């Protein structure tokens, strides 16, 4: 699909300090978009980037009042938004559920799920009411585990699956807004440091991660950014509420939208075996 890069949009990136968040930010700035963002931790190049952004604010994702305050500041600066991206991700705590500190486990659920929805709840009234055909667009990011039961990452996996279902629920409740959740696959980002630093807890994922780095077998960041841009430009009706895999799905196929309209369950969480 050919993406229209000529239209100027306003984007808010929650989790701009993530590698995917930074890649999207640089791509959209090159297109002339207005970009605002939040970050948990300072990152290399933050000060050089700050001057190009409408606003860039630190936020503690464990603090609901801080999130509310940041949302108020961002909307004061941006007025309305066309694209809202939720990019925070936390793998910890790693290890079997019963061995995890439960407060740390619950905190991971909050960062990967609940607090991201707090941003959506606070920022949704400020969406651009004129972007009705191909937006406004809300982008979440999925993890693994939809079709299996990976061990030692129960908080991260459960939160991401809940976020996938919430994407569908929001799409059903909020018309004229496109909600999508994207599975980027194995991308070379700093989130893997959690696995590499805890080999005894990470289990099989440690060996797989080591092998990925050894062979440099990763999904390219360019491909992830292209997927986000393509879904931003697609019409809301067929796309909203769905989970797209960067690696395995035909998100860049012009024939996809007609197929999605014919198959309402496609790219959604569904129970199997109902026909038995």
Describe the model:
The protein has 276 residues and is an alpha/beta fold. 43% of the residues lie in helices and 12% in strands. The protein contains 11 helices and 7 strands. It has a 7-stranded parallel sheet, sandwiched between helices. The longest helix is centred in the middle third of the chain and has 22 residues, at 102-123. The radius of gyration is 18 Å and the shape is globular. The termini are far apart.
Question: Can I get a quick summary?
Answer:
The chain is of the alpha/beta class and 276 residues long.
What's the arrangement of secondary structure elements?
Layout: E1 10-14, H1 19-30, E2 34-39, H2 46-50, E3 55-58, H3 64-78, E4 83-86, H4 102-123, E5 137-141, H5 154-173, E6 178-183, H6 193-196, H7 199-202, H8 204-215, H9 221-233, H10 236-239, E7 242-245, H11 256-262
Parallel strand pairs: 1-2, 1-4, 2-3, 4-5, 5-6, 6-7
Order of helices and strands: EHEHEHEHEHEHHHHHEH
**Alpha carbon gyration radius:** 18 Å
Largest sheet: 7 strands, parallel
At the first level of CATH, what is the class?
Alpha Beta
